[in-house]
Amino acid sequence: MKLDGKLAVVTGGGTGIGLGIVHAFAAEGCKVIICGRREEPLKEAADAWSGNGEILYHTCDVSCKESVKGFFDWVKATAGVPDILVNSAGTNIPNRTIAEMGQDQWDQVMAINASGSYYCMYEVLSEMRERKDGLIINISSTSGIRASALGGIAYSASKFAVAALGIATANEVAADNVKITNIYPGEVDTPILAKRPAAVTEEHRARMLKPESLGHLALSIALLPQGAHVPEVTIKPLLQEFM
Q1: Contact 75/90 with Cβ under 8 angstroms?
Q2: Which run of H or of E encompasses 70?
Q3: Based on the structure, what is the number of domains in the chain?
């Protein structure tokens, strides 16, 4: 139980990449609290877990700073200050060109993907810095390194923002022994695929990463020895070109 006694918060932890990371952490004895906007997938994920560790859940809209504050107040009152935060909540839209996308869609994607990550980091960083220990993992995207039509205008911009947020903050908090890692996944078989403009074939899905691959990677980052830090890492399917 390599994470026994640790507390992790995973946003967007009810499905997809977040859930893959939750399972990897819990299997190593970690207490994991998952959050998301919809209670049903959170409850299903928590109820279905029968392995090591413990999975708790609470609703939270990461795009709303008041909702984020209320969630972390609940976390701290219920289980304490998180040792690990994983910002995995994210969204995209079918209208991915600047000509087709509405301004409200831009606002929605930026609020969830970029501002949501910032709000959550803000709620844990001061206490992590004070106790000189903590890990934050931000799930960005290869679209946050190299903008592409596949990710779209708003998604790419939001993931670039997450990348910059993680890198700049990591430089600021390193002296306090707080680590921040950006993960840039390529294509992953998750529910967000339903928001693509064109349906994804089963053959295409079969070539994608699975959420458990991200779980293995996040766990390896969480288990690094003191003083070792991976600031950025890209993970992609073996047969996918880097975009």
Answers
A1: no
A2: helix 65-78
A3: 1
Question: How do residues 131-169 score in pLDDT, each as one tens digit?
Answer: 999 999 999 999 999 999 999 999 999 999 999 999 999
Indicate whether 193 belongs to any domain. Answer: yes
Q: Within 10 Å of residue 236's Cβ, how many Cβ atoms? A: 18
- SS3 label, residue 27: helix
pTM of the predicted protein model:
0.96
Domain assignment present for 194? yes
In the chain, count of helices (H) and strands (E)?
8, 7
| Catalytic residue flag (residue 57) | no
Give SS3 for 5: coil
CB atoms within 10 A of CB 194: 10
User: Which segments in the chain show pLDDT lower than 50?
Assistant: none
Cβ atoms of 28 and 215 closer than 8 Å: no
CATH of the domain at 103: 3.40.50.720
The residues, any chain, with a CB within 8 Å of residue 39's CB and separated by 6 or more, are 57, 59
